[in-house]
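Work Package 3 (structural annotation) set out to generate three-dimensional models for the target panel prioritized at the project kickoff. During this period the team completed the workflow that converts sequence records into discrete structure tokens, so that structures can be stored uniformly alongside our sequence database. As a representative example, we reproduce one entry of 196 residues exactly as it appears in the project archive.
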Amino acid sequence: MAATQHAQQIKQDSQDYLTIALFQLLQKKELDQIKVTELIKRAGVSRMAFYRNYHSLAEILEQYFAPQIQRLFDDVIVAVPATEKIADMTDFFEHFAAELRLATERNYEYIIRQLFYNNMVRYYDAGAIWQEIDTTKRRYWVTFMSAGVYAIWREWLLNRQQETLAQMHELIGQLQQATMAAMIAPKSVFEPHHFQ
């Protein structure tokens, strides 16, 4: 048992060292400019330790961001009280704004965007109202909403958060409700307009 705990601690330490070293390197370089050799040297771990834990540098970032983004969505999916949800979102966004800025500067924002999309799918899969849309429309609607909601949070975070978090949360809720209403409305209400 002790040997297993020791091995787990070594694995966790290696992951922590690699994550810290990668973020240090990202302060000066884009993700695709960083080599594994450079990373393991800075982290003070072996090449074997890197490949025992990860397949790529991007995977380090995925494992770093995934639990943070999942916790944020868990609050929404579980429907915690609004005050608690806003408090958790405030904590998340205060820390995340600088990380998103770095991700955009160093060209690894696609990792965050994909994790966000995965959690949007999880969120919509958990909601009964979204089941009213047929499979094809639902797939495209989730893609549309994910891109839109991500773009709103991105704009807000990168432009110094002019509006309050509560205002942003309310706006996104209104947009979701309006687009959902349009999707389940009778066709005659929303006939496509043909351009002449």
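The two ends are 75 Å apart (CA to CA).
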